[in-house]
Amino acid sequence: MFQTAFTLSLTQFARTLSLPERLQRSPARNLALEGLRQRNLALDALFYDIKVITPEEAFYISDSLAAEGAIMIVPPSGGAAIRLSETVDEFVLRGGDKVRALAVAGIGGSALGAAAFARNVADAVQGPVAVVVSGYGIADAITEAFGGHFFFGHLRGLRPFLETLDDLAGRPKVGAYGKASASRTSLATRTVQALLADERLSFDLLVGHSKGNLVLSAALHDLSKQAAARIAAHAATVKIVTIGARIAMPPAFTDVVDVMGTWDWFGEINSRPFIDADRRVPHAWHHTNTDLNGHLPVTATLKEILAASPSLAKRQVEERGTETSPELPATAAEPAVSPSSIGPKPRPATIEEVKQAFAAGAGAAANTSQIESGSPEELQPPQPH
Protein backbone atom coordinates (compact mmCIF):
# COMPACT_ATOMS: atom_id res chain seq x y z
CA MET A 1 0.00 0.00 0.00
CA PHE A 2 2.95 2.34 0.47
CA GLN A 3 3.49 2.78 -3.27
CA THR A 4 -0.21 3.44 -3.80
CA ALA A 5 -0.26 6.07 -1.05
CA PHE A 6 2.92 7.66 -2.40
CA THR A 7 1.55 7.90 -5.95
CA LEU A 8 -1.70 9.41 -4.67
CA SER A 9 0.07 11.98 -2.48
CA LEU A 10 2.45 12.99 -5.26
CA THR A 11 -0.42 13.48 -7.71
CA GLN A 12 -2.36 15.59 -5.22
CA PHE A 13 0.71 17.71 -4.52
CA ALA A 14 1.42 18.27 -8.21
CA ARG A 15 -2.25 19.06 -8.78
CA THR A 16 -2.11 21.74 -6.09
CA LEU A 17 0.89 23.38 -7.75
CA SER A 18 -1.02 23.80 -11.02
CA LEU A 19 -4.20 25.18 -9.40
CA PRO A 20 -3.33 28.90 -9.87
CA GLU A 21 -2.81 28.37 -13.58
CA ARG A 22 -6.11 26.49 -13.94
CA LEU A 23 -7.97 29.20 -12.06
CA GLN A 24 -7.05 31.64 -14.81
CA ARG A 25 -9.40 29.67 -17.07
CA SER A 26 -12.99 29.21 -15.84
CA PRO A 27 -12.23 30.05 -12.19
CA ALA A 28 -15.76 29.48 -10.91
CA ARG A 29 -16.07 26.07 -12.54
CA ASN A 30 -12.65 24.88 -11.38
CA LEU A 31 -13.14 26.08 -7.81
CA ALA A 32 -16.55 24.43 -7.57
CA LEU A 33 -15.32 21.09 -8.90
CA GLU A 34 -11.77 20.83 -7.51
CA GLY A 35 -12.85 19.35 -4.19
CA LEU A 36 -14.95 16.70 -5.94
CA ARG A 37 -12.10 15.92 -8.32
CA GLN A 38 -9.70 15.38 -5.41
CA ARG A 39 -12.26 13.06 -3.83
CA ASN A 40 -12.57 11.14 -7.10
CA LEU A 41 -8.79 10.88 -7.28
CA ALA A 42 -8.83 9.19 -3.88
CA LEU A 43 -11.59 6.85 -5.11
CA ASP A 44 -9.50 5.89 -8.13
CA ALA A 45 -6.57 5.18 -5.82
CA LEU A 46 -8.80 2.59 -4.12
CA PHE A 47 -10.43 1.13 -7.23
CA TYR A 48 -7.45 1.10 -9.61
CA ASP A 49 -3.91 -0.22 -9.45
CA ILE A 50 -2.24 3.21 -9.43
CA LYS A 51 1.06 1.88 -8.11
CA VAL A 52 1.90 0.78 -11.68
CA ILE A 53 2.21 4.48 -12.60
CA THR A 54 5.69 5.90 -12.05
CA PRO A 55 6.16 9.15 -10.05
CA GLU A 56 7.29 10.97 -13.20
CA GLU A 57 4.15 9.88 -15.05
CA ALA A 58 1.89 10.84 -12.14
CA PHE A 59 3.42 14.32 -12.07
CA TYR A 60 3.09 14.59 -15.85
CA ILE A 61 -0.64 13.85 -16.00
CA SER A 62 -1.63 15.69 -12.81
CA ASP A 63 -2.46 18.92 -14.62
CA SER A 64 -4.88 17.05 -16.93
CA LEU A 65 -6.32 14.95 -14.12
CA ALA A 66 -9.95 15.75 -14.97
CA ALA A 67 -9.58 16.72 -18.64
CA GLU A 68 -12.56 14.85 -20.08
CA GLY A 69 -11.82 13.63 -23.59
CA ALA A 70 -8.03 13.69 -23.27
CA ILE A 71 -6.30 10.69 -24.86
CA MET A 72 -3.28 8.91 -23.44
CA ILE A 73 -0.98 6.28 -24.93
CA VAL A 74 0.05 3.96 -22.10
CA PRO A 75 2.86 1.45 -22.80
CA PRO A 76 3.44 -1.69 -20.70
CA SER A 77 5.31 -1.53 -17.39
CA GLY A 78 9.00 -0.83 -17.79
CA GLY A 79 8.55 0.63 -21.26
CA ALA A 80 8.35 4.18 -22.55
CA ALA A 81 6.58 6.96 -20.68
CA ILE A 82 2.91 7.89 -21.02
CA ARG A 83 2.07 10.27 -23.86
CA LEU A 84 -0.84 12.68 -23.44
CA SER A 85 -2.78 14.11 -26.40
CA GLU A 86 -5.53 16.72 -26.42
CA THR A 87 -6.98 15.92 -29.86
CA VAL A 88 -7.38 12.94 -32.17
CA ASP A 89 -4.94 14.45 -34.69
CA GLU A 90 -2.30 14.89 -31.99
CA PHE A 91 -2.92 11.32 -30.90
CA VAL A 92 -2.17 10.10 -34.42
CA LEU A 93 0.99 12.22 -34.63
CA ARG A 94 2.25 10.79 -31.33
CA GLY A 95 2.04 7.25 -32.67
CA GLY A 96 -1.60 6.44 -32.13
CA ASP A 97 -1.87 4.79 -35.54
CA LYS A 98 0.28 1.93 -34.18
CA VAL A 99 -1.94 1.30 -31.13
CA ARG A 100 -4.29 -1.67 -31.42
CA ALA A 101 -6.09 -1.61 -28.04
CA LEU A 102 -8.47 1.01 -26.63
CA ALA A 103 -9.53 1.19 -22.97
CA VAL A 104 -12.01 3.32 -21.04
CA ALA A 105 -12.08 3.40 -17.23
CA GLY A 106 -14.88 4.52 -14.92
CA ILE A 107 -15.36 5.24 -11.18
CA GLY A 108 -13.87 8.72 -10.49
CA GLY A 109 -12.91 9.44 -14.08
CA SER A 110 -9.45 10.78 -13.27
CA ALA A 111 -6.51 10.51 -15.63
CA LEU A 112 -4.57 8.63 -12.94
CA GLY A 113 -7.19 5.89 -12.68
CA ALA A 114 -7.51 5.70 -16.46
CA ALA A 115 -3.73 5.38 -16.88
CA ALA A 116 -3.53 2.66 -14.21
CA PHE A 117 -6.32 0.64 -15.84
CA ALA A 118 -4.73 1.05 -19.27
CA ARG A 119 -1.36 -0.12 -17.94
CA ASN A 120 -2.97 -3.30 -16.59
CA VAL A 121 -4.39 -3.88 -20.07
CA ALA A 122 -1.05 -3.04 -21.71
CA ASP A 123 0.73 -5.58 -19.52
CA ALA A 124 -1.77 -8.20 -20.69
CA VAL A 125 -1.42 -7.48 -24.42
CA GLN A 126 2.29 -6.57 -24.17
CA GLY A 127 1.76 -3.46 -26.27
CA PRO A 128 0.68 0.19 -25.96
CA VAL A 129 -2.94 0.95 -25.12
CA ALA A 130 -4.96 4.09 -25.86
CA VAL A 131 -7.21 5.31 -23.07
CA VAL A 132 -9.74 8.14 -22.97
CA VAL A 133 -10.10 10.15 -19.76
CA SER A 134 -13.71 10.20 -18.57
CA GLY A 135 -13.10 13.36 -16.52
CA TYR A 136 -15.38 15.00 -14.01
CA GLY A 137 -17.45 18.03 -14.87
CA ILE A 138 -20.72 19.71 -13.96
CA ALA A 139 -22.71 17.07 -15.82
CA ASP A 140 -21.09 14.36 -13.71
CA ALA A 141 -21.69 16.27 -10.46
CA ILE A 142 -25.41 16.70 -11.20
CA THR A 143 -25.78 13.10 -12.35
CA GLU A 144 -24.10 11.97 -9.15
CA ALA A 145 -26.61 13.97 -7.12
CA PHE A 146 -29.31 11.79 -8.68
CA GLY A 147 -27.43 8.63 -7.69
CA GLY A 148 -25.18 8.49 -10.71
CA HIS A 149 -22.52 6.38 -9.01
CA PHE A 150 -25.08 3.67 -8.35
CA PHE A 151 -27.32 4.07 -11.39
CA PHE A 152 -25.03 5.35 -14.15
CA GLY A 153 -26.42 2.69 -16.47
CA HIS A 154 -29.97 4.07 -16.14
CA LEU A 155 -29.43 7.86 -16.12
CA ARG A 156 -28.05 8.37 -19.62
CA GLY A 157 -31.22 10.23 -20.66
CA LEU A 158 -30.14 13.25 -18.61
CA ARG A 159 -26.84 13.64 -20.41
CA PRO A 160 -27.95 15.84 -23.36
CA PHE A 161 -29.15 18.67 -21.12
CA LEU A 162 -26.31 18.35 -18.61
CA GLU A 163 -23.60 18.30 -21.27
CA THR A 164 -24.91 21.58 -22.63
CA LEU A 165 -24.61 23.11 -19.16
CA ASP A 166 -21.04 21.88 -18.88
CA ASP A 167 -20.10 23.48 -22.20
CA LEU A 168 -21.64 26.79 -21.14
CA ALA A 169 -19.65 26.69 -17.90
CA GLY A 170 -16.37 26.70 -19.84
CA ARG A 171 -15.32 23.09 -20.17
CA PRO A 172 -11.83 22.74 -21.74
CA LYS A 173 -11.94 22.01 -25.46
CA VAL A 174 -10.07 18.73 -25.66
CA GLY A 175 -10.80 15.41 -27.32
CA ALA A 176 -13.62 15.53 -29.86
CA TYR A 177 -15.06 18.75 -28.44
CA GLY A 178 -16.06 20.26 -31.77
CA LYS A 179 -17.58 17.10 -33.25
CA ALA A 180 -21.34 16.80 -33.33
CA SER A 181 -23.07 13.59 -32.36
CA ALA A 182 -26.36 11.95 -33.27
CA SER A 183 -27.30 12.35 -29.60
CA ARG A 184 -25.73 14.82 -27.23
CA THR A 185 -23.53 12.34 -25.36
CA SER A 186 -20.61 12.96 -23.04
CA LEU A 187 -17.35 14.35 -24.38
CA ALA A 188 -15.59 11.09 -23.51
CA THR A 189 -18.16 9.18 -25.58
CA ARG A 190 -17.71 11.53 -28.52
CA THR A 191 -13.93 11.15 -28.30
CA VAL A 192 -14.14 7.35 -28.29
CA GLN A 193 -16.52 7.54 -31.24
CA ALA A 194 -14.10 9.82 -33.12
CA LEU A 195 -11.24 7.38 -32.52
CA LEU A 196 -13.29 4.44 -33.78
CA ALA A 197 -14.49 6.40 -36.83
CA ASP A 198 -11.03 7.60 -37.88
CA GLU A 199 -9.76 5.63 -40.90
CA ARG A 200 -6.15 6.21 -39.82
CA LEU A 201 -6.68 4.12 -36.69
CA SER A 202 -7.33 0.41 -36.30
CA PHE A 203 -8.24 -1.29 -33.02
CA ASP A 204 -8.74 -4.99 -32.45
CA LEU A 205 -9.40 -4.89 -28.69
CA LEU A 206 -11.79 -2.67 -26.71
CA VAL A 207 -11.76 -2.92 -22.90
CA GLY A 208 -13.98 -1.06 -20.48
CA HIS A 209 -14.43 -1.02 -16.72
CA SER A 210 -17.50 0.08 -14.79
CA LYS A 211 -18.85 3.32 -16.31
CA GLY A 212 -16.32 2.98 -19.11
CA ASN A 213 -18.43 0.15 -20.54
CA LEU A 214 -21.32 2.58 -20.94
CA VAL A 215 -19.01 5.00 -22.79
CA LEU A 216 -17.93 2.25 -25.18
CA SER A 217 -21.52 1.14 -25.77
CA ALA A 218 -22.80 4.65 -26.43
CA ALA A 219 -19.92 5.40 -28.83
CA LEU A 220 -20.49 2.19 -30.81
CA HIS A 221 -24.27 2.70 -30.99
CA ASP A 222 -23.86 6.29 -32.20
CA LEU A 223 -21.26 5.23 -34.76
CA SER A 224 -23.54 2.48 -36.06
CA LYS A 225 -26.13 5.16 -36.91
CA GLN A 226 -23.63 7.32 -38.77
CA ALA A 227 -21.16 4.89 -40.37
CA ALA A 228 -22.57 1.41 -40.80
CA ALA A 229 -19.69 0.35 -43.04
CA ARG A 230 -17.13 1.34 -40.42
CA ILE A 231 -19.03 -0.60 -37.75
CA ALA A 232 -19.13 -3.66 -40.00
CA ALA A 233 -15.37 -3.46 -40.46
CA HIS A 234 -14.82 -3.20 -36.70
CA ALA A 235 -17.25 -6.02 -35.93
CA ALA A 236 -15.25 -8.42 -38.13
CA THR A 237 -12.01 -7.97 -36.18
CA VAL A 238 -12.70 -6.30 -32.81
CA LYS A 239 -12.96 -8.15 -29.51
CA ILE A 240 -14.79 -6.35 -26.68
CA VAL A 241 -14.15 -7.11 -23.01
CA THR A 242 -16.37 -5.47 -20.40
CA ILE A 243 -15.32 -5.59 -16.74
CA GLY A 244 -17.54 -4.74 -13.79
CA ALA A 245 -20.77 -3.95 -15.69
CA ARG A 246 -22.68 -5.74 -18.44
CA ILE A 247 -23.83 -3.21 -21.04
CA ALA A 248 -25.47 -4.04 -24.38
CA MET A 249 -23.28 -3.55 -27.44
CA PRO A 250 -24.53 -3.20 -31.06
CA PRO A 251 -25.77 -6.53 -32.46
CA ALA A 252 -23.04 -6.54 -35.12
CA PHE A 253 -20.43 -7.26 -32.41
CA THR A 254 -20.53 -10.95 -31.56
CA ASP A 255 -17.12 -11.34 -29.90
CA VAL A 256 -18.00 -9.78 -26.53
CA VAL A 257 -16.79 -11.13 -23.18
CA ASP A 258 -18.50 -9.83 -20.03
CA VAL A 259 -16.39 -10.26 -16.89
CA MET A 260 -17.84 -9.91 -13.39
CA GLY A 261 -16.55 -10.61 -9.91
CA THR A 262 -18.58 -13.03 -7.83
CA TRP A 263 -18.84 -10.42 -5.05
CA ASP A 264 -19.51 -7.44 -7.35
CA TRP A 265 -22.97 -6.29 -6.24
CA PHE A 266 -22.06 -2.74 -7.28
CA GLY A 267 -21.56 -3.83 -10.87
CA GLU A 268 -24.74 -5.92 -10.80
CA ILE A 269 -26.79 -2.83 -9.95
CA ASN A 270 -25.60 -1.14 -13.14
CA SER A 271 -25.72 -4.20 -15.40
CA ARG A 272 -28.43 -5.20 -17.82
CA PRO A 273 -30.24 -8.18 -16.26
CA PHE A 274 -30.83 -9.88 -19.62
CA ILE A 275 -27.07 -10.15 -20.28
CA ASP A 276 -25.30 -13.09 -18.67
CA ALA A 277 -21.70 -12.89 -17.51
CA ASP A 278 -19.30 -14.91 -19.64
CA ARG A 279 -16.66 -15.14 -16.93
CA ARG A 280 -17.05 -14.97 -13.17
CA VAL A 281 -13.87 -14.19 -11.24
CA PRO A 282 -14.04 -15.87 -7.82
CA HIS A 283 -13.69 -13.79 -4.65
CA ALA A 284 -13.54 -10.54 -6.65
CA TRP A 285 -15.42 -7.28 -6.11
CA HIS A 286 -15.59 -4.17 -8.31
CA HIS A 287 -12.10 -2.78 -7.72
CA THR A 288 -8.90 -3.73 -9.58
CA ASN A 289 -6.37 -2.59 -6.96
CA THR A 290 -4.06 -5.55 -6.36
CA ASP A 291 -2.99 -4.09 -2.99
CA LEU A 292 -6.48 -4.81 -1.59
CA ASN A 293 -8.22 -8.10 -0.99
CA GLY A 294 -11.12 -8.98 -3.26
CA HIS A 295 -9.62 -7.29 -6.31
CA LEU A 296 -10.34 -8.31 -9.90
CA PRO A 297 -6.95 -9.03 -11.52
CA VAL A 298 -7.26 -7.26 -14.86
CA THR A 299 -3.94 -8.36 -16.35
CA ALA A 300 -4.26 -12.05 -15.45
CA THR A 301 -7.93 -12.19 -16.51
CA LEU A 302 -7.25 -10.54 -19.86
CA LYS A 303 -4.33 -12.88 -20.55
CA GLU A 304 -6.64 -15.85 -20.06
CA ILE A 305 -9.28 -14.36 -22.33
CA LEU A 306 -6.78 -13.50 -25.07
CA ALA A 307 -5.20 -16.95 -24.82
CA ALA A 308 -8.60 -18.35 -25.76
CA SER A 309 -8.58 -16.12 -28.89
CA PRO A 310 -5.56 -17.38 -30.83
CA SER A 311 -6.38 -15.32 -33.93
CA LEU A 312 -6.29 -12.06 -31.97
CA ALA A 313 -3.14 -13.00 -30.08
CA LYS A 314 -1.39 -14.04 -33.31
CA ARG A 315 -2.37 -10.78 -35.04
CA GLN A 316 -1.01 -8.72 -32.14
CA VAL A 317 2.28 -10.63 -32.11
CA GLU A 318 2.69 -10.17 -35.87
CA GLU A 319 1.98 -6.44 -35.64
CA ARG A 320 4.45 -5.97 -32.78
CA GLY A 321 7.10 -7.91 -34.74
CA THR A 322 6.55 -5.77 -37.83
CA GLU A 323 6.77 -2.52 -35.86
CA THR A 324 9.80 -3.36 -33.73
CA SER A 325 11.99 -5.49 -36.03
CA PRO A 326 12.98 -4.42 -39.56
CA GLU A 327 12.86 -7.02 -42.28
CA LEU A 328 16.01 -9.11 -42.14
CA PRO A 329 18.00 -10.03 -45.28
CA ALA A 330 17.76 -13.55 -46.60
CA THR A 331 21.22 -14.43 -45.28
CA ALA A 332 20.07 -13.78 -41.71
CA ALA A 333 17.95 -16.91 -41.81
CA GLU A 334 20.97 -19.07 -42.62
CA PRO A 335 22.70 -20.86 -39.74
CA ALA A 336 25.56 -18.94 -38.19
CA VAL A 337 27.77 -22.05 -38.21
CA SER A 338 28.43 -23.80 -41.51
CA PRO A 339 27.79 -27.57 -41.66
CA SER A 340 31.46 -28.25 -42.30
CA SER A 341 32.48 -26.60 -39.05
CA ILE A 342 30.42 -28.99 -36.97
CA GLY A 343 31.88 -32.14 -38.63
CA PRO A 344 34.55 -34.39 -37.08
CA LYS A 345 37.78 -32.68 -36.08
CA PRO A 346 40.80 -33.34 -38.41
CA ARG A 347 43.54 -35.60 -37.07
CA PRO A 348 46.86 -33.90 -36.10
CA ALA A 349 49.58 -33.81 -38.81
CA THR A 350 52.71 -35.98 -38.46
CA ILE A 351 56.32 -34.67 -38.62
CA GLU A 352 56.83 -36.21 -42.07
CA GLU A 353 53.74 -34.43 -43.46
CA VAL A 354 54.94 -31.09 -42.08
CA LYS A 355 58.38 -31.53 -43.75
CA GLN A 356 56.72 -32.36 -47.08
CA ALA A 357 54.46 -29.28 -46.80
CA PHE A 358 57.44 -26.95 -46.17
CA ALA A 359 59.32 -28.47 -49.11
CA ALA A 360 56.32 -27.98 -51.41
CA GLY A 361 55.94 -24.37 -50.27
CA ALA A 362 59.59 -23.59 -50.96
CA GLY A 363 59.30 -25.02 -54.45
CA ALA A 364 56.24 -22.94 -55.20
CA ALA A 365 57.99 -19.78 -54.01
CA ALA A 366 60.93 -20.48 -56.35
CA ASN A 367 58.60 -20.91 -59.33
CA THR A 368 56.88 -17.66 -58.48
CA SER A 369 60.17 -15.72 -58.37
CA GLN A 370 61.00 -16.90 -61.89
CA ILE A 371 58.02 -15.07 -63.37
CA GLU A 372 59.18 -11.88 -65.06
CA SER A 373 57.61 -8.55 -64.16
CA GLY A 374 54.88 -7.62 -66.61
CA SER A 375 54.48 -11.17 -67.92
CA PRO A 376 50.98 -12.47 -68.67
CA GLU A 377 51.20 -14.77 -65.69
CA GLU A 378 51.67 -11.81 -63.33
CA LEU A 379 48.87 -9.75 -64.91
CA GLN A 380 46.39 -12.59 -64.90
CA PRO A 381 43.61 -11.93 -62.38
CA PRO A 382 43.22 -14.37 -59.51
CA GLN A 383 40.86 -17.24 -60.01
CA PRO A 384 37.59 -16.90 -58.15
CA HIS A 385 36.91 -19.26 -55.26
UniProtKB/TrEMBL annotation:
Question: At the top level of its lineage, which domain of life is listed?
Answer: Bacteria
Disordered: annotated segments: 311-385
Q: Where is the composition biased (Low complexity)?
A: 357-366
Q: What is this protein called?
A: Alpha/beta hydrolase
Q: Which organism is it from?
A: Rhizobium lusitanum
